[in-house]
Every structure is written in structure tokens, then in C-alpha cells.
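Trying the structure run again after the queue cleared.
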Amino acid sequence: MPESKCIRSRIFHTVKRLDDYSISRCGFGMICSRWLAFVLILAASPLLFQARADDWPQWRGPARTGHITSGAPMLTSLPPDPKLIWRLNVGEGFASPVLAGGKLFYFDNQGGKETLHALQAKDATRLWSTPVDDTFQDEQGPPGPRCTPIVDGDLVYAQSGKGELACLSVSDGRRIWRVNFTNDFGAAFLGEDSKVPGAAEHGYTASPVISGERLVACVGGTNGAGIVCFAKRTGQILWKSQNDLAAYAAPMITELAGATQIVCFTVEGLIGLDLLKGNLLWRIPLKTSYGRNCTTPLIVNDWVVAGSYRAGLIGVKVSAAEKGFKAEQRWVNQKAAMNFSSPVAVREHLYGLGPSKNLICADVETGNILWSKEGYFGGSDSAYAAMIVMGKTILISTDGGQLILIEADARQCKELGRAQVCSRNWCSPAYVDGRLYIRDGLRGPGNLSCLELTH
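Done. C-alpha cells:
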């Protein structure tokens, strides 16, 4: 049962018991208990507004891993011509759509402003639109946002290409709080002429991460504000840590070696931080000339896997040590180097897009490639793949607008179906209740579409 339903059920039964007790004790018991019910409901309201477990409220889904939840519909086949539920024209941008509580959020360029929009997911009815910042543009694409929004209960967060982080109300788009990475934290000047590697050059793409009442963002300030933790409801700074320039990879909060850690892939490399205080727990240097560290860190057991097209794919083992934690780079594989497509994992096997526009499966603990398949990706621009794990299958969205369903099999690449659903794109789709929400438009405006994938 979803958490919100459980809470409502507990409130109802608690109030019912209070009603029975009050009525037997005093004549105004009913009134007293109703007021108490109102108080209980108000106290529980933050939880009542939380997204359902099968929503897609952030970058790469419920847990930021590319996996659907166990209760979501799993695909064993793919219709060759999925049913189109609705299609909407949208502005420029590479930010992926997200969905929570029946509302769909997308981020695009409207009149020179990076603008966050809210829709009814079922029929694309517009609810509100709020400008967040002026647009960012470089040679990689048209002017527009590149960072996926994140929804948490009654709040939604949007981060612009220029480093404006805004917290908005889910109900009406009203701004709750905001910070600017350049003005408030001294992050490097943005733009291709800045000669500073990482997000300072090609814009902020790393979607912040939320845990409990904390929001953590890769800010990129070199004055001790490389990573910053905020109180998610007020924007209060809880801690600042490190001098790392921001790269393009989204941070992850996970359990490693028995402790909750924040794993960030910055221009300087992979780092693990303590969630409560921001203390550095471990660091693996991984610096290249352009700072194009893009892949979201993949965590399997106590392994962290990440990489770039220049450094290759690396495997890091994190373990407890006598004084804190120890991180060791156990392997590197240049033949599995990944550019800006983040891989997924099924058990101890990794699935991702290799350097030759090839789909690969690799062993997490050794880095060895188990199989490679070419022919799914093409075109003159850099190849891109977004992957969604559905139990024993993996749904792949290609940069050419195709959907491909394969078995999650480390022995072979077995295709189960494919469909052409949109034009070229570099976006990751959202998947909720058997419907896929996908956005296209690689060099200009495009479409946001809702497709029915289940039969």
C-alpha cells in the first residue's frame, strides 16, 4: 500500500477510536475529536503530498538508478506502433520530463527564459509556467535548460544552465526560495570562452539530490563550496564542502561500506561525503583537460563505477578502514569509455553505451566487457542512450528516437522489440503506469509525447 494511503488509514482509525472514547466520556466528544483529526491531518500533510512509489519524480526515476519500482508495469514485449495519448509542442532544451502525483513537469526555453511548466499528465492540460533564469547556450545545442527538475512532495526544484537553483510550489509554481551558484557561492564564470572546465563551460546539468529534509547540489565554488547542502524547504545552507569544480554528473546518495554517503563525480574526480556534515570520506582523482565527467555514478554493493570518454570507465571499491573509509580504483577499461550516457546495472552487470556507438554489457567487479552490439546508434552527432530497467528487461531510448527492448542478459544481447516513436533527442524519458513521456528536439524546439506501451 502506498505510504500516503497508509497514513490516511492510520489517521482514520485513530480518529475513530478517539470518537468512540470521547462520545462515551462527554457530550462534546465528537467536536473535540474532529478538531484533533484536523490537527493530525495538517501534521501529516507533507507525507500525504509525497509522490507515489511508482512515480518518476527525478533524474533516472524513483531511486535515480534507471530502475522502475517493483509495482510498476514491466514490459516483456514492445508494440511496434505505441498508442499516442497526447503530443505537445515544447521549446528548446535537453532537460528530461518528470512526473509525480499525476502532474508532469518539463523545463524549456520560452521567449529567452528557462521556464518550468506543470501539466496534468493524463491529458496535457496546462496548470502553470514559471520562468527560472535567462537561457544558456553553447555549441552543444540550442538555448535552453539541460538539468532535469526534481519533485519532492509539495515542492519542485529547477536548476538553470547558468546555475540558478529555484524551489517552487507544486500547486501553483510560486517561488519559495532561490540561490545562484555564481553570485552566492563564487562559482566560475559561465560560457565557452571562460576556459574553465566542467559546468562553468557548458552549463549546469547535474540534477540535485534530496534525502529527508536535505537537498545537495554540485555548485562548483572553489572557496569551499564545491558541494553545498541546503534545507530543502527554506534554502538555508546546512554545510559547504570541498573546492571541486562542478562537472555534469548528477550526485547520488547511497549506502557504502555501511554508511550513508553522497557520491559526486566532479571535474577533479569521484568523491564520497558524509551526508550530515559534508566531511570528505574518500577521493579518487580523475581529471581530464575538458572536465567532461558526465556519467551518474553507478553504485552496486560497495562498488562505484563512473567514467568519461577520455579517462575510460573505472571501478572503485569502497570499504571501511581503521580510520574512516578506503577507496581503491580496482580497474579501468578504455574500451568501455562512456561519454554522456549514464549506464544502468542489473545485479553485478552494467549495461551502457560504449565509445564506438555500441551497446555493451560489462562486469561491475572486473570491468570486462561480456558482449557488444552495434547498429542501434548512428548520425553525425554524439550518440546518446537512456535506459530503463524493468525487472528482466531493459528499455532503451536512442538518440534517433527509437525505443528498443532487450533482455537483461549478461550472456547475449537479445532484442524483444523496437519502435520509432519520435525524432532525434538527448533526453531521458519518464515511465509511469505503462506510459512513456518522451521529449525530442535536438537542435531546436520539439515535442513532448505521452505513449501507451502496455497492451
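The two ends are 25 Å apart (CA to CA). Worth checking whether this holds up in the mutant runs.
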